[in-house]
Amino acid sequence: MEIDKLVKQEIIKIDPKAEVILFGSRARGDFRKDSDWDFLVLLNQPLTASLKEFVLDQLYDLELRTDSVISAIIHSKSEWEDRAVTPIYQMIKKEGKRA
């Protein structure tokens, strides 16, 4: 199974209404064999430090199981919308693909 589907499975266990968006070279299709997997994780609940740590722990476990490098930006959906004017928001909006 592709890494993006596995990431989505792990995140949905934590927050069934979460969104997972793949971006970067894997989304554009110009990746190399050793490229990392870049994800935006948008939770449907307030993001606390402990929740963020838990999400990152789950993704780290997935990295170990798949021998892949996973990079994640994690926000609540409402917090992310507040960043609409930022370059990273615009880039992910343009090239991102829902997992």
Quick structural summary:
With 99 residues, the protein is an alpha+beta fold. It has helices at 3-14, 25-28, 49-66, 77-81, 87-95; strands at residues 19-23, 37-43, 70-76, 97-98.
Task: Give the key terms.
99 residues; alpha+beta; Beta Polymerase, domain 2
Descriptive report:
There is one protein chain. The chain is of the alpha+beta class and 99 residues long. It has a single domain, classed as Beta Polymerase, domain 2 (2-Layer Sandwich), CATH 3.30.460.10. The chain is built from five helices and four strands. The protein has a four-stranded mixed β-sheet with strand order 3-2-1-4, with helices on both faces. Helix 1 packs antiparallel against helix 3. The radius of gyration is 13 Å and the shape is globular.
Task: Give the helices and strands, then pairings.
Layout: H1 3-14, E1 19-23, H2 25-28, E2 37-43, H3 49-66, E3 70-76, H4 77-81, H5 87-95, E4 97-98
Parallel strand pairs: 2-3
Antiparallel strand pairs: 1-2, 1-4
